[in-house]
């Protein structure tokens, strides 16, 4: 059977949140943010195992959060950037075959739901890369150089990426290998690495959800608290 691994990326320190504890360990609805996505992947019949990538110095705390979930294969330490944390996960998955499916998910997005996971896994039946995205509701512009509008892309064509971002393991391995040979490489997500270094690989886009928000700033915790209460009642 082809394995399917969910990688929960929790290696960040939450600078924009400004709390002493990394935001993935802050509680919403009485449980750590990190617990929610682990719970969803653990309950999903299409996921065989979960790899948690935690911020340095907080691994023991993440192990405590992960302990109740039988699908968690390991909690490893991440790197200084999201990219370095993805690379740590790829190293930990070195024994998995190239056709394995891997979903990279931000621990900072606690309310990923089974339907989103279903859509990612369905897309990986026919493709090698999938992104979860939502339409934009603002008019989005490119600014600069200087505080001047440089471009106004048509809103209908724009989407906001969420996570998971899913790949056949061989594809994401190859993209990061090529990126590793590029001195100017930086990325804020994993699909961006495939798009840049393997432009011939189509990245399918599937629907996300407004509830699949990323807890980034203190105000996001207010929304997350509300969503956690809704989830507890459902
Ligand atoms: N070195 C890093 C940085 C980020 N992430 C993870 O990538 C996801 C998205 O990142 P972001 O929201 O930017 O989290 P932080 O890096 O923690 O936040 P900030 O940028 O405000 O410091 C988060 O789940 C975060 O834990 C990671 O695994 N390793
Ligand atoms: C991967 C991501 O969540 C997609 O929206 C986003 O790019 C993460 O960016 P961040 O700078 O790490 O918050």
From TrEMBL:
<feature type="site" description="Transition state stabilizer">
    <location>
        <position position="16"/>
    </location>
</feature>
<keyword id="KW-0808">Transferase</keyword>
<dbReference type="InterPro" id="IPR034683">
    <property type="entry name" value="IspD/TarI"/>
</dbReference>
<dbReference type="InterPro" id="IPR029044">
    <property type="entry name" value="Nucleotide-diphossugar_trans"/>
</dbReference>
<feature type="site" description="Transition state stabilizer">
    <location>
        <position position="23"/>
    </location>
</feature>
<comment type="function">
    <text>Catalyzes the formation of 4-diphosphocytidyl-2-C-methyl-D-erythritol from CTP and 2-C-methyl-D-erythritol 4-phosphate (MEP).</text>
</comment>
<keyword id="KW-0414">Isoprene biosynthesis</keyword>
<protein>
    <recommendedName>
        <fullName>2-C-methyl-D-erythritol 4-phosphate cytidylyltransferase</fullName>
        <ecNumber>2.7.7.60</ecNumber>
    </recommendedName>
</protein>
<feature type="site" description="Positions MEP for the nucleophilic attack">
    <location>
        <position position="155"/>
    </location>
</feature>
<comment type="pathway">
    <text>Isoprenoid biosynthesis; isopentenyl diphosphate biosynthesis via DXP pathway; isopentenyl diphosphate from 1-deoxy-D-xylulose 5-phosphate: step 2/6.</text>
</comment>
<dbReference type="Pfam" id="PF01128">
    <property type="entry name" value="IspD"/>
</dbReference>
<dbReference type="InterPro" id="IPR001228">
    <property type="entry name" value="IspD"/>
</dbReference>
<dbReference type="GO" id="GO:0050518">
    <property type="term" value="F:2-C-methyl-D-erythritol 4-phosphate cytidylyltransferase activity"/>
</dbReference>
<feature type="site" description="Positions MEP for the nucleophilic attack">
    <location>
        <position position="214"/>
    </location>
</feature>
<comment type="similarity">
    <text>Belongs to the IspD/TarI cytidylyltransferase family. IspD subfamily.</text>
</comment>
<dbReference type="InterPro" id="IPR050088">
    <property type="entry name" value="IspD/TarI_cytidylyltransf_bact"/>
</dbReference>
<dbReference type="GO" id="GO:0019288">
    <property type="term" value="P:isopentenyl diphosphate biosynthetic process, methylerythritol 4-phosphate pathway"/>
</dbReference>
<keyword id="KW-0548">Nucleotidyltransferase</keyword>
């Amino acid at each position: 059977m082809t394995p399917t691994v969910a990688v929960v990326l929790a290696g960040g320190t939450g600078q924009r949140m400004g709390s002493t504890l990394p935001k993935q360990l802050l509680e919403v609805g009485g449980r750590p943010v990190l617990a929610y996505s682990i719970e969803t992947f653990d309950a999903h019949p299409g996921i065989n195992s979960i790899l948690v990538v935690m911020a340095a110095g907080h691994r023991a705390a993440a192990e405590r959060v992960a302990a109740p979930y039988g699908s968690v294969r390991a909690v490893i330490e991440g790197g200084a950037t999201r990219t370095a944390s993805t690379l740590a996960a790829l190293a930990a998955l070195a024994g998995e075959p190239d056709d394995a499916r891997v979903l990279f998910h931000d621990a900072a997005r606690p309310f990923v739901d089974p339907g989103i996971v279903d859509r990612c896994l369905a897309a990986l039946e026919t493709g090698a890369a999938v992104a979860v995205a939502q339409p934009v509701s603002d008019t989005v512009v490119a600014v600069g150089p200087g505080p001047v509008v440089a471009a106004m892309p048509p809103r209908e064509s724009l989407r906001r990426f969420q996570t998971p971002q899913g790949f056949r393991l061989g594809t994401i391995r190859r993209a990061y290998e090529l990126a590793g040979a590029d001195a100017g490489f930086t990325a804020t997500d994993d699909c961006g690495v495939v798009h840049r270094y393997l432009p011939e690989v189509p990245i399918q886009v599937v629907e996300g959800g407004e509830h699949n928000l990323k807890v980034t700033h203190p105000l996001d915790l207010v929304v997350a608290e509300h969503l956690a209460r809704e989830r507890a009642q459902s």
